[in-house]
Specification:
This protein is about 35% helix and about 20% strand. The chain is built from 8 helices and 9 strands. The N and C termini lie far apart (about 80 Å).
């Protein structure tokens, strides 16, 4: 059913898949190119491992696109609670039915065009269409079980953290561009279900992070993501990348680490820092005490 009209649509959270204020497209991505072993040096400590990890996540043994939902519990293919009766489908962009792609584009246009323009990121319809239907794109579609109407979608890629700068830099991640639903399906757990599914897919694929782009003008994205356990504003980290543009303030990057080894290292580092602060305070107190 392609009858959705603009006034029927609303967002859970929005990403940045169009062109930046400088006209540079970020939606071409690096995901499938990494899996195809692009001849560019990866800015990581284990280049071969990174390529192998992404290839396994993207492709089956016979070279066909891997359906990420097949590796997850069957219950994640449906959402039946709070009056909802939805089915959840996985698609690769290049095989997405063009009628369905047009519905997704219409939702995105209505919800994000003004936000893209206000933020300075810029809206480009052709660029967004290319993002949705590219060979690198992966999508979850949320449909009504009866009627088959698309009521929301998540657009994402399996790539590296440098995706936001169109560079092969950082750790393997699942990068979310858009997460959008119609208004009558908001506040019923659809967005959280989508993020949970994507997080489980990232863990299964042994990726390090789930990342999401939001424009600097987004009013809904930051509070939605920040309210979910483990998510944080990770913009400062991606700005440290070699390809980063420190003057580009049109978007922010939120992320959740799903790599146990990284999480353990962070916890150990935090414990050491806390102990160091405690010692420093004790030394300061001892120095200030009268002889």
């Amino acid at each position: 059913d392609n009858s959705d009209t603009p006034d029927e649509m609303s967002k859970v959270t929005g990403g940045c898949g169009g062109k930046s204020k400088g006209g540079k497209s970020r939606s071409k991505g690096v995901g499938s190119d990494v899996a195809a072993v692009r001849t560019v040096k990866l800015s990581t400590s284990a280049n071969g491992d990174v390529v192998s990890t992404l290839r396994r996540a993207l492709r089956n043994d016979d070279g066909t696109d891997r359906d990420l939902l097949n590796d997850l519990p069957a219950g994640l293919r449906a959402l039946k609670r709070s009056g909802l009766d939805l089915v959840i489908e996985f698609h690769s962009g290049k095989k997405l039915n063009r009628a369905d792609a047009k519905v997704c584009l219409a939702i995105c246009r209505e919800e994000l065009q003004e936000e893209y323009e206000v933020s300075g990121y810029g809206w480009d319809e052709e660029d967004k269409w290319g993002e949705l239907t590219s060979s690198e794109s992966r999508l979850l579609l949320f449909r009504e079980a009866v009627g088959r109407r698309i009521v929301g979608y998540a657009s994402f890629r399996l790539t590296l953290q440098g995706e936001c700068w169109n560079c092969m830099e950082g750790s393997p991640c699942l990068f979310v561009y858009d997460l959008l639903v119609l208004p009558e399906y908001r506040r019923k757990g659809v967005g959280k279900q989508a993020l949970l599914t994507l997080e489980m897919a990232a863990r299964k694929a042994r990726l390090a992070y789930v990342c999401a782009l939001v424009t600097s003008a987004s009013a809904l994205g930051p509070p939605f993501l920040s309210a979910i356990k483990g998510w944080r504003d990770d913009t400062a980290a991606v700005l440290q990348m070699d390809a980063a543009d420190p003057d580009d303030d049109s978007f922010r990057v939120y992320a959740k680490c799903v790599d146990t080894s990284i999480l353990q290292a962070e916890q150990q580092s935090q414990s050491v820092q806390a102990y160091a602060r405690q010692l420093a305070a004790q030394l300061a107190a001892a120095s200030a005490a009268p002889p």
